[in-house]
Design a protein that fits this description.
486 residues, 20 helices, mainly alpha
């Protein structure tokens, strides 16, 4: 809007009919391009469509992976390994809220892509508006409860001794900024707007990377500066999201005030479809708590700091797998909603192959480069030695880590949460937590082995569930207007 007004203000010209016609054509072209981005999900060759979608989403989440590494580096080099351990102890608070945001985003994205595929933009708008309302209410509740019971909460997460002051400084800031901690990029992707979904990741991360050294070093705020940098970037993402969903014209739908009013069936659908993602996030949170408290009890600060570094590296390494899953979802959801089942099935086949291939390559590279990579973060000593040993073991799990999330995302995109429930709950309750509790009692090495084994077993379970429960299995040869292959 500002750029549109500037020429007139500068020249003093009064717009005439030609100007109006030009503006109309420009607006129409923009709107047509946005609608075309959505319909391309059902017409563009599947292979090319997935390449475009998955590279865009991988770039998006990969940028966040870069931030996870740079944030850890700034804290480790500017404050120390104990501060890195403290930040990782607070991570479950962020993971829990992120699990809810992901659940709502995945649920809304599934509904939006299928509603747009079925020609129902009003249903898409209501789903998005309800997702915002539920998240904002939950974020405010998290802030209130978290700040009220902060010290007991931090003790329960394993923060004690030297790590407690750092953990407290970090937690206060991130809890206060909880309400801006999501931009719902999954819902943006659901209508095919991949470039803006990339910006929702890239712009805030650039802000965070700029703010971190300024606040940690320049202002001397330490871990509190790291937290402020994180919240600052999240606030930028939230503002961009509000503009996109509520204000931008020429899209298939815009969220209105009425769409924010909670609608029980819609909220139920969002939570029903997204709950496997919430359970996966909650499971990750629980797993991190179990690992942290176990290491605090059996090994101490060096092992905690080593795990914190490995966790950030794992986040970075697995970003492309997350990007593949996220890029696949709108393609599967839109085509399933439009009745183009062969296209949806082929999208699943191609993304599963890509996930497995990347995992094998990433695991091998991580194991081979563990020593020089860890040396970037910490100097020689117990923390570096422990982190190198841990990373080499964890790399075995990297090869399989993307399979279970991809299969769960596939079922969610089809609006079928039950198989995803089985994967998220089953691998967590039956496999991962028991392995960590059992093998972790023997010390840090047992913990690393348990985490890697949990990923491998989880992948096997996911492939079995996919073979037995895939509703699109066998449709690849069905006629679909020539759109099944790409």
């Amino acid at each position: 809007m500002t750029s549109g007004a500037a020429p007139g203000a500068t020249t003093g010209a009064t717009p005439g009919p030609a100007d109006d016609a030009t503006a109309g054509r420009t607006a129409g072209a923009d709107a047509g391009g946005r609608v075309a981005a959505t319909t391309a999900l059902g017409t563009r060759p599947v292979g090319r469509l997935l390449w475009h979608a998955c590279t865009q989403t991988t770039l998006s989440v990969g940028v966040y992976g870069v931030y996870a590494l740079t944030n850890a580096w700034f804290v480790a080099r500017g404050v120390g390994p104990t501060a890195v351990a403290a930040v990782n102890l607070v991570a479950p608070l962020l993971l829990a809220l992120g699990a809810l945001a992901t659940a709502l985003g995945v649920g809304a994205a599934s509904v939006v892509s299928r509603r747009l595929g079925a020609g129902d933009p009003a249903g898409a708008a209501r789903a998005t508006g309800n997702a915002f309302t539920v998240f904002w209410l939950a974020a405010l509740a998290t802030t209130g409860v978290g700040l009220t019971f902060l010290d007991p909460l931090l003790h329960a997460l394993g923060a004690r001794g030297a790590t407690l002051p750092y953990a407290r400084d970090y937690a206060v800031v991130v809890l206060a900024g909880a309400i801006v901690s999501t931009g719902f990029s999954a819902v943006v992707r659901a209508e095919g707007r991949l470039r803006f979904s990339v910006l929702l990741w890239v712009v805030p991360v650039v802000v965070q990377i700029v703010l971190d050294p300024l606040l940690i070093y320049g202002a001397g705020l330490g871990v509190r500066g790291a937290a402020l940098g994180t919240v600052g970037g999240q606030a930028v993402s939230a503002a961009m999201s509000v503009w996109f969903f509520f204000l931008q014209r020429g899209r298939p739908y815009r969220v209105r005030a009425a769409d924010l009013r909670p609608h029980a069936p819609t909220v139920g659908t969002l939570l029903g479809i997204g709950s496997p993602s919430f359970l996966a996030g909650a499971g990750t949170t629980l797993l991190v708590v179990v690992v942290n408290t176990g290491l605090a009890r059996t090994a101490g600060a060096a092992a905690l700091a080593a795990y914190a570094i490995c966790a950030r590296l794992q986040t970075f390494v697995q970003m492309p797998q997350l990007g593949i899953s996220q890029g696949m979802q709108p393609v599967v959801g839109y085509n399933a909603g439009a009745g183009l089942t062969a296209r949806a099935w082929r999208a699943r086949v191609l993304t599963l192959r890509a996930t497995l291939l990347y995992g094998l390559l990433a695991g091998a590279a991580t194991a081979a480069l563990a020593e020089p990579v860890v040396a970037v973060f910490v100097d020689a000593g117990p923390t570096r030695t422990t982190a190198v040993d841990a990373l080499r073991v964890l790399a075995v799990g990297f090869a399989a880590a993307g399979v279970s999330p991809l299969v769960a995302a596939y079922f969610q995109a089809l609006g079928r949460p039950r198989p995803a429930y089985l994967l998220t709950l089953g691998t967590l309750v039956v496999v991962k937590v028991p392995l960590v509790l059992g093998l972790g009692a023997a010390g840090p090495t047992g913990t690393w082995v348990a985490l890697a084994a949990g990923e491998v077993v989880g992948a096997v379970v996911a492939l079995v569930v996919l073979r037995l429960r895939d509703p699109l299995r066998g449709v690849a040869d069905e006629p679909d207007g020539g759109q099944g292959r790409g």
